[in-house]
Amino acid sequence: MKKKSLQLEPIVFNTFNAIFMIVIAVVTLYPFLNTLAVSLNAGNDTIRGGIYLWPRVWTEQNYRAVFAGGTIFNAFLISVARTVIATVLSLFLTSMLAYTISRKEYVLRKPITIIVVLTMYFSAGLIPYYFLIRDLHLLNNFLVYIIPGLVSAFNMIVIRTYIQTLPEGLIESAKIDGAGDFRTFISIILPLCQPVLATVALFIAVGQWNSWFDTFLFASSKQSLSTLQFELMKLLSSSMNTNSSASMANGADLNAVQNMVTPVSIRAAITIVASLPILIVYPFLQKYFVHGLQLGSVKE
């Protein structure tokens, strides 16, 4: 009797586990699939509701409206450039600071740690920050996307904590072989920190890609520096201010009405356009998360 119960336990557990994971997958994927369906559905039909996983009236008009301005491609390139450059530089400088503060023999590590951490809790405010950017001659300058966020206190703490879990013997052996601190950092620390660096890189990249408020504050008067998120935000604002009912009342033909975009449909198309690059990059970084768990479980 006990043997039968022991044989049934794995079957019952695996069944409930599979059902639970399927439910989690459906709950996770449904909002994205629903947004995709709305973005491919005619705007006036979307107002009726009832769009779930499949468009009721297919149209590409929403995406045409997104790309109709002609500025979206340059804004896309600016967003890609700021994301790549800022991620690489911020990752390198933040990890270098994290390695320096993680060294117990560094006498100033505690004061510097306190100073860096304080920046997470205290800020001078938006107006002094704007004056600082102005005095640094970063207004309407591409570097305004890069320099202010080069070092993040939170990311520094995450990387420092990971470095402290690495075997101390590796660093000591490198120094015995004659390697300096910079050579040790480049040859030993960075390769071993790939999992946490990939995680932090994703944080930085998503933040840079989704950022639009800095463009609004510091570069809105220079169209060539406009980012994708800022252009999409302007498009969404203009679509919400459009009185679609007036165009229908003014004798618009049936084809024009069916191809009409609405704030709901244009918002769905904007969400897909803005999130697609991150969705493409994420699977390539996911393997480092699992690898990081495996490395973190090995102690000296």
Verbal overview:
This protein has 300 residues and is mostly helical. It folds into 2 domains: 1-69 and 242-276, no CATH class; 70-229, MetI-like fold (Orthogonal Bundle), CATH 1.10.3720.10. Helices cover 72% and strands 0% of the residues. It contains 15 helices and no strands. It has helices at residues 2-39, 43-46, 61-67, 72-102, 109-118, 126-135, 153-164, 168-176, 181-192, 194-210, 213-218, 228-241, 244-249, 254-258, 263-296. Helix 3 (61-67) packs across helix 15. It is flat, with a radius of gyration of 26 Å. The relative contact order is 0.13. The chain crosses the membrane at residues 12-33, 72-99, 111-131, 143-163, 184-206, 264-285.
Per-chain topology:
Layout: H1 2-39, H2 43-46, H3 61-67, H4 72-102, H5 109-118, H6 126-135, H7 153-164, H8 168-176, H9 181-192, H10 194-210, H11 213-218, H12 228-241, H13 244-249, H14 254-258, H15 263-296
CATH homology group of the largest domain: MetI-like
Low-confidence stretches: 243-258, 295-300
Question: What proportion strand?
Answer: under 5%
CATH architecture of the largest domain: Orthogonal Bundle
Give the overall shape, derived from the CA principal axes.
flat
Number of discrete helical segments: 15
Number of domains: 2
Structural class: mainly alpha
Q: Quaternary state, please? A: single chain
Main beta-sheet annotation? none
Keywords: Cell membrane, Membrane, Transmembrane, Transmembrane helix, Transport
InterPro entries: MetI-like, MetI-like_sf
Protein name: Aldouronate transport system permease protein
Pfam family, one: BPD_transp_1
